[in-house]
C-alpha cells in the first residue's frame, strides 16, 4: 500500500515536471525566435534598407504564331542574302540565332529581388551598384504594371543598368534616390525602341 502511494507521488511529480519542462522549452524557443527576428530587423536597419521589391529580370511578351512566322521569314531572307554573297559563316550564325529565338522566346524571365539602401542599389542580394559609381538615374514608363529604372554608371562595360520597378513604387524610389544620385533624362535608344516594337 505504501509502495503504491509512493509510486503515485513519483508519477505525479514526474508528470508535473514534464509539463514544466515542456512549458520552459516552448518559452525558450519563443525567446530564440524573437531574438532571431530582432537580429534580422537590426541588421536590416543598420544597412539602412529603404525599399525592397521583386520584379522580373526582363519584359515578357507573349509571342503569337504570326510573330514566329515573321521571324522565320526574316531569317530565310537573311540566309538567302548570305548564301548569295557566299558568306557561309553569317548564314550559319543566322541559323543558330533563329534556333535560339525559337528555344527561348516562350520562356518567362526569372523574378529578381532588389533593394535600395544606404550603400546603393542591390540586385539579388549580392551585386550592389554603389552610389559613388552611379552618375545619373532616370525612370521610364514601361507598362501599367512596371516602370523602368535606368542607372547610368561609370563602368564602360555596364554603362546603363535597367531595373523594373512597380509603377506604384516610382514616387518613393525617386525620393530615395534623389538624396543620393542626380536625376536626369536618359533617352531610350533606337535599338531599345525597336526591341519593344518587335517584342524581343
UniProtKB/TrEMBL annotation:
Record keyword Transmembrane helix present: yes
Superkingdom of source: Bacteria
Keyword list, A-Z: Membrane, Transmembrane, Transmembrane helix
Entry's transmembrane regions: 66-84, 90-106
Entry protein name: DUF5673 domain-containing protein
